[in-house]
């Protein structure tokens, strides 16, 4: 079945780069997403990548997609304390496009130490 | 600004009470909305897909009679937790699909439900 997996925790120092990794199983996903959730809040879409792209950069965020290995990563450059949050990787469900159900990973809790 | 408004943000009530949570799309018409439940330190679990003008589609293991969903207009879906008990305490999040935008779903800010 469809599955998305992430490591649960990541701790970095302020100013360092953070890399959050994700693996997925559904090779038919058209889009893959990264969401950020701060305590007690809903989800905020950070960025997404179309499945025919290898890399997408948006300011401090860089997304790398390896379709062969079904591996997605999010790199946050110059990580700040305000980046501390839980980051979810998500893919659209089998047969879906942008409007399909989202399958979420378990979430990676990023802790940024000053 | 927020494109999906979810209310209330926090509810504390006694066991046996029914609680209604509203999810509104502000800038677009949402034919499809989604309801999620999230336990502490866990991922979002999809409960049901709410379709405007028709019955909701529930995920396996979710009780339809316990979690009533109504999607009577293109901008509003409601989730009613009927006869809530302490085990229903959780963080409930809604999202709305914007067919005209690049994002797959816009999320509300969630409702923290605490049943005493």
Main sheet overview of chain B? 7 strands, mixed
Low-confidence runs of at least 5 consecutive residues of chain B: none
Would you count the extended β strands of chain B for me?
Answer: 11
H and E order of chain B: EEEEEEEEEEE
- Which percent band covers the strand fraction of chain A? over 45%
User: Level of helix content of chain A?
Assistant: under 10%
For the secondary structure, the number of strands of chain A is: 11
Mean model confidence by pLDDT of chain B:
91
The coarse overall form of chain B would be globular
Our count of helices of chain A gives 0
What general form of chain A does the structure show? Answer: globular
Protein architecture, described:
The complex is a heterodimer of chains A (114) and B (116). Chain A is mainly β and 114 residues long. Helices cover 0% and strands 55% of the residues of chain A. Chain A has no helices and eleven strands. Chain A has strands at residues 4-6, 9-13, 18-24, 31-37, 43-50, 55-58, 61-66, 71-76, 85-92, 102-104, 108-113. In chain A, the strands form two sheets. In chain A, strands 2, 4, 5, 9, 10 and 11 form a six-stranded mixed sheet that branches. In chain A, a hairpin with a 4-residue loop joins strand 7 and strand 8. The termini of chain A are far apart. The mean pLDDT of chain B is 91. In chain B, 0% of the residues lie in helices and 51% in strands. Chain B is mainly beta. In chain B, strands 2, 4, 5, 6, 9, 10 and 11 form a seven-stranded mixed sheet that branches. Chain B has a four-stranded antiparallel sheet with strand order 1-3-8-7, with no helix packed on it.
């Amino acid at each position: 079945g469809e599955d998305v997996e992430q490591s649960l925790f990541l701790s970095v120092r302020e100013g360092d780069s953070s890399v959050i990794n994700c693996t997925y199983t559904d090779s038919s996903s058209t889009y893959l997403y990264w969401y950020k959730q701060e305590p007690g809040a809903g989800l905020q879409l950070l960025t997404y990548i179309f499945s025919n792209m290898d890399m997408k950069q948006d300011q401090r965020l860089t997304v790398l997609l390896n379709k062969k290995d079904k591996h997605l990563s999010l790199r946050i450059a110059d990580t700040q304390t305000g980046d501390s949050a839980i980051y979810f990787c998500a893919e659209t469900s089998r047969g879906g496009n942008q409007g399909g159900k989202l399958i979420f990973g378990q979430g990676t809790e990023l802790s940024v130490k000053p | 600004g927020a494109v999906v408004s979810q209310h209330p943000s926090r509810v504390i009530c006694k066991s046996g009470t029914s609680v209604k949570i509203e999810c509104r799309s502000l800038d677009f018409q949402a034919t499809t909305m989604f309801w999620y439940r999230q336990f502490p330190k866990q991922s979002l679990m999809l409960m049901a897909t709410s379709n405007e003008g028709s019955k909701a589609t529930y995920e396996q293991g979710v009780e339809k009679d316990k979690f009533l969903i109504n999607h009577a207009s293109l901008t509003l879906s409601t989730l009613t937790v009927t006869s809530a008990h302490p085990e229903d305490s959780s963080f409930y999040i809604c999202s709305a699909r914007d067919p005209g935008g690049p994002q797959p779903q816009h999320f509300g800010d969630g409702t923290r439900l605490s049943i005493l």
